Amino acid sequence: VSTSRERRSEILFAVGNLVPAIVLGVGLYALPVRWWPADIVIGSAVIAVPVTSAVAFGRPLASRKALRVGAGVLLAIGFVLLAAALLSVAFLSGIHGDFGQGGMTLMALIAFLVLPYAIVYPVLELRWVGPAAKKPAKAAESAPAPVAAQAPNADESAPPSPAASNADGGAPSKGDGGAAA
Amino acid sequence: VSLRALARLFGGFFAVLLLASLVLKAALHVDRFREPKRSIVSVWSGGQRRGRVVIPAGPDAAHRIDDALTKQARSWRGTGVVEDVIDDGPILSTNAFLFGASFVPARDGVEVTYDGRVAYATVDDLMALKAYDHPIVLGPIRLQLGVDADVVWAALAKELRVKETDLVENGEFRRLAMRHRVPPEPAPKVTADTLRDAAVEAGRYLARAVRPDGTYRYEVNAVENTENEGYNWPRHAGATWYLAESALYARDPAMLDALERAARRLAQGALVNCGEHRCVAEGDRADLGSSALGLLALSEIVLGGRMPELMPVIADLAAFIRSQQRSDGEFMHFYDRKENHPVDVQVLYYTGEAAFALGRAARLTRDPKDVDAAARALDRLVTYPAWYVGWHYYYGAEHWTCHALDELWERAPNQKALRFCLDWQAAVYDTAIWGRTASPEYDGATSAGPFVPPAIVGTATRMEAAVATLRVAKIAGVSRSDLARLQAAVDAGLAFLLRFELNPGPTQIMVNPAMMRGGVPNTPTDLTVRIDYPQHAGTGLIGYLRQLERHAAP
Hints:
Structural class of chain B: alpha+beta
Distance between the termini of chain B: 80 Å
Oligomer: heterodimer
Number of helices of chain A: 5
Strand order of the largest sheet of chain B: 2-1-3-8-4-5
Number of strands of chain B: 16
Strand content of chain A: under 5%
Largest sheet of chain A: none
Largest interface: A-B, 35 and 42 residues
Number of strands of chain A: 0
């Protein structure tokens, strides 16, 4: 179970997830035309992210998993937006050639408006949440869990042992190897 | 998530994205600086295309082009035009949005191959169809990307005599990078001769637009020579001011005659009572701008030695404008004629127009109150608070402020106003269009967005202010760097205006090019001419011409 300090961080991330969800929701609502692919993809994210936040609020044992899903959804949306922006720039650059400082400034402005919400924030969150645990083997499932566990080092490529994880399957502490309760 | 996993995720994502972007850019790229691949010879008369021949590049191409031009022009008694196809590129989709966005306005044409037959929509065709000037409106968002796909498809389907749906489904479309060979694309230099010709032609356009009753053909579509509805008295007055400037400069009897008609219409037909004074207005609410520009126009005429009978009107209009001024120098921009009181509401332009007009009128009225009112208004315009972003005059289209600076400099010099105009012009220069590969002729123009043609009138208003500021800057002895940047902005901006004035412009696609000569269109692809467009452009052109002439005078 998370320490109270980690729980506070979980709550902060759960609340923080609502900010990009609101931005995306307002942006989707404000779009003057409806285009179903955008409606479905962004609409799903707008629903999914608050749901994961609600889980993180209501079920502390599942909060890491929920936050990981929420951050993953945001990052996926970020990748889609970034890919759309870069491919648009490539398309316009192919058609127009160099389109001058004004165009580059506009594109940079759009990028800097999107990147903090859709790329930087979910990456920080995923980094904090730490890696997902592998599914325990059947035999291990039946074995009693040890009283205390050693925290995994998230920087290691090998995943932590299931027994070292929280009951919800998330990392027991801050991803870089803080002590677990 | 581990750092290594994140790094792998990002590395893979960006590598794929970068590769896709480079492939996409390379696939769509066209080279606009190579030798032509083929030439399209067309003959136009009465604004309609009558004939067309396509000549592939080759050793005898020039001879064949000349031959085709002569034969075609003779048989159709029209104007021969040659457009070179420099390069071509693919069209990725026939989705209307993507198709439309796949062309550079006024630079790219369309080729379609259907059932072994080929049809072209050249730059001239698309200009005549107004296909470049079709904004995509998404609710409050207005995008202008490339061409209107529906218009292009309909025109090409008509050309090939097939159904539009069949053409879109089965046709193979390509983008053509094009350049005019005959007539060659204009690239006028900014000299006293080119400025004089352009400025006088702009005035002649306005003179031709004055009807017998003194009103103007307010807004005309140059392609079809049709008029749009609407009329606006501030613009009537502004146009008359420039008509006065250019007619008095050219001493052209036809222009002077038209000027007197327009001035009489203003002084007799548009003057109404505003309390104890007279003002220019329609209806119960008078706006300050109409009276200010009316005062400016009438003052210009009398200063030029014409129509001295207008003096009482000038004095009365000046008194009305002064009566609208607050103690802090600001003007109340409206007057309620029903209840006989000023309305203390401000909009853009009117305070600058009033300051400029009072300054100009004071040369006739010799009333120090006029100069004082103008100077206080100018000071108010350029005294913005610390939280200046909210100041409604801060770097708006404040060209009238710089006219007022210029007008008053010898009588009430205002250093703060000079700094305001220099800083504004620096911002204009920095945000202008520079270095668009497809359209280098837009250099120095005021941008309307990164992928759309610039607004000519936006550039014109900034240029008239730049020219006014330049005169004062030279007298005031501002720094070399300020002066050099201002001079560069004026040179590039005026060259852009000279390039796109209909002098004569693409006459082949116009129904009545003689009527439109000297007009200044809205944008390079929207050939609509409203009376204030040649006014703004002409004011900058003639202002700089006078500076060059003064400099050249012994």
